[in-house]
Amino acid sequence: MVFDQIKKYYSNFIPMSDDDWNLLKPALRLVHLKKGEKLQSEGDICNDVTFCNKGLLKCYHIKDDKEYVEAFFTENEYLSDYTSFLLRIPGKLYIEAIEDCELVLLDYDTIQTFYSRVDNFQKFGRLMAEFLFIQISLRNNSLLFESPEKRYINFSKNRPDLIQRVPQYMIASYLGVTPEALSRIRKRLLS
Amino acid sequence: MVFDQIKKYYSNFIPMSDDDWNLLKPALRLVHLKKGEKLQSEGDICNDVTFCNKGLLKCYHIKDDKEYVEAFFTENEYLSDYTSFLLRIPGKLYIEAIEDCELVLLDYDTIQTFYSRVDNFQKFGRLMAEFLFIQISLRNNSLLFESPEKRYINFSKNRPDLIQRVPQYMIASYLGVTPEALSRIRKRLLS
DNA sequence: TTTACTTCTTGACTTAGGTCAAGAAATCAT
DNA sequence: ATGATTTCTTGACCTAAGTCAAGAAGTAAA
Q1: Of B167, B182, B148, whose CA–CA distance to B98 is shortest?
Q2: What is the pLDDT of residues A18-77, one digit of tens each?
Q3: Could you give the residue ranges of the DSSP H alpha helices within B31-90?
Q4: Could you tell me the maximum CA-CA distance found in chain B, to the nearest angstrom?
Q5: B178 contact to strand D (CB, 7 A limit)
Q6: How confident is the model at residue B64 (pLDDT cuts 50, 70, 90)?
Q7: Is the pLDDT of residue A13 over 80?
Q8: Closest-approach nucleotide to residue A179, Cα vs C1'
Q9: Which nucleotides of C are covered by protein (CB under 7 A)?
Q10: Record: contact B143-A139, CB cut-off 8 A
Q11: Quick check: helix, strand or coil at residue B31?
């Protein structure tokens, strides 16, 4: 059923007893998003963490009328504007569907309640934050210590699915270069 | 006394009862490091989180014989090679004293024990990971979306203390540019 | 205070990526 | 299919940062 995927995802982090699950399940909300629709815009306080059942989304922010992609999210990935979510401040991010999406949402208040009531869930929160920290550390080092060319090579290796599904100009933005530069990098790599 | 600072630090994140503190205190280890000495080298599995009572350290890694500074840590800051610490894998980081340091260490096993035994501590772990996530997100965005010049200006604003205490070539590395480039940026900014 | 060492600055040159603009290729809608 | 729109490529030119090398300035040690 429609919440199976997120249940399995949670189970990767903590043992999820039937009791825990039955407590959590009623709080989950299923949301559908058409390509181009936004889950969140700049200025919103991010009030949910989102699990992607199906589809593809991008997180980006806008500066000087230009889009800067910070991350892509696809099947069985967990996403949110975590900074806004945690600090309860308006975020700078847009979250937008690149393909039609089926998403599962869980709101801030429910999560906080679960943190205090279910010890396992507190642990899940820790593991999740730790996991996100490691993820973003890797990206950090990549941006700081690797050339755009190397970043593109790695991205192709690690996310061949996204190379297929995401327009090149968005990938360029994600890698921190212009579309023109990425086009030239690709040309260089062919020869 | 010598553990007052870390107690206060913990108290910023969670209420720290006398019982909790008396449980934790015996596990804390005081370590002194002379300028130039290393707390950790590449290949080590990071086995402690470290709190800085006094002094100044840098985290860096080495690639093609060049040093890449990832972070500085000074009084009342918490540091570790968190990725190595969490995943229990050999790290790529060196952690080295830029000034003589007084440090408080807490080892992995103790922390894990406390996570499972003291509910408050589980929460501390979550809050800490969340905090580190937010920190590194900010740095991430700075590296990706700001010019070296902008990064230097912000760094000067946010950490005027480090501008004074850290040699310029290390700051250059931290900002992701060569010492020559930083020297020229500074020159540009004066005129 | 003289010497040695470290750190910082400057110059000359190279290069990768940015910007702007035009056109080609691919995709989508009718 | 056809035309419209979006996406990708290419060219020309510019600029900031990298590299290499030399020397100045600052700091520490004898």
Answers
A1: B167
A2: 999 999 999 999 999 999 999 999 999 999 999 999 999 999 999 888 899 999 999 999
A3: 82-87
A4: 59
A5: yes
A6: confident
A7: yes
A8: D8
A9: 6-12, 16-21
A10: no
A11: strand
Any idea which residue has 């250059």 for tokens?
B172
Mean pLDDT of chain A: 93
Taking CA atoms, B178 is separated from B68, B151, B175, B184, in Å, by 10, 13, 9, 10
* Contact (CB, 8 A) for B155 and B171: yes
Does any domain span residue A159? no
Q: Is residue B64 part of a domain?
A: yes
How close A165 gets to chain B, by Cα (Å)? 23
Tell me which residue has tokens 């090149």: A168
CA end-to-end span of chain A: 48
**Axis crossing angle, helix A119-145 with helix A148-158, rounded to the nearest 10:** 140
In chain A, residues with a C-beta closer than 8 Å to the C-beta of B122 are 119, 122-123, 126
Average pLDDT over residues B59-68: 89
DSSP symbol at A26: G
Number of domains in chain B: 1
Quote the CA–CA distance of B73 and B85 in Å, as a whole number.
Answer: 17
The distance (Å) linking the CA of A77 with the C1' of D5 is: 32
End-to-end CA distance of chain B, in Å? 48
Q: Which domain holds residue B83?
A: 4-118
- Does residue A175 form part of some domain? no
CATH number of residue A72's parent domain: 2.60.120.10
Q: Does B141 touch chain A (CB under 8 A)?
A: yes
CA nearest to nucleotide C26 C1': residue: A167
Token digits of residue B11: 């108290």
Q: List CB contacts of A111: < 8 A, sequence separation 6 or more.
A: A49, A121, A125
Q: What is the mean pLDDT of chain B?
A: 93
Confidence of residue A130 (pLDDT cuts 50, 70, 90): very high
- Which nucleotide is the nearest neighbour of A178, by CA and C1'? C18
